[in-house]
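Suppose you are handed a protein chain with no further information: no name, no annotation, nothing but its sequence. What can you learn? This example shows the usual starting point.
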Amino acid sequence: MRPGDRLAPRHYTGGMASQHTVLVVEDDESIAESMAHHLGRAGYRVLRAGDGAHGLRLFRHQRPDLVILDLMLPEVDGWRFTEEIRNEDARVPLIMCSARTSEYDRVHGLEVGADDYISKPFSMKEMVARVNAHLRRRDHERQPGGRGPVDVEGLLIDPDQVQAFHDGASVGLTPREFEVLFALAQSGGKPMARNRLYRDVWGYEMLAGDRSVDVFVRKVRQKLAKACPEHTYVQTHYGVGYRFEPVPREPGDDPGGASEDSGEA
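A reasonable first move is to predict its three-dimensional structure. Written in structure tokens, the prediction is:
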């Protein structure tokens, strides 16, 4: 490999031994350099790519533990990049960061497969805190035992497999979707406020206007409705948040669960 070859990743490590690798896909050199510096100081091994195509190659060859991704990238944009890696790996945490701050962009980013969305400009301290929270959650999910399964009305929610099953068949939840469902299922039928659900699942406080909980609840409902058409499991508790309660689906109900999302909690 020749010096300066763009396929050669640049590595940054801080003063402590790094256990995790973070891939930063960002075409703004100054932002990428600052992110790499702060992540390196936090003890992470950092790979950098300045365009989406390079980022995909690094992802496939290096298999990082987390990805931080800009949306407006040359060659392969952030939307396509997310779809590509989600087809290959549903589990790796992915944080989008972009100057595009509209609700549509944030919601669309989460719907195509991002776990989190940070609007530019953002503080590097906040970015590192989010990376820490996502990787702590991922490592916790990988530890067997400690959390018992929930089995109710034909739905088995199994934390050891990080998946829900209906009649032995996987519902097809992503890890983040699973954690949303499992947190609700553990609440004993009591409503959970959106900010508490966010804190329990994402690991930090929800910012004003963040719709991540609503997006992921909708995705969970859609997958459950397809796999378990006899019941609805996640109910809207208006003015509070959401609760887990199996309810038989009435004849004529929308099997896609759209009616359940008609109002905001």
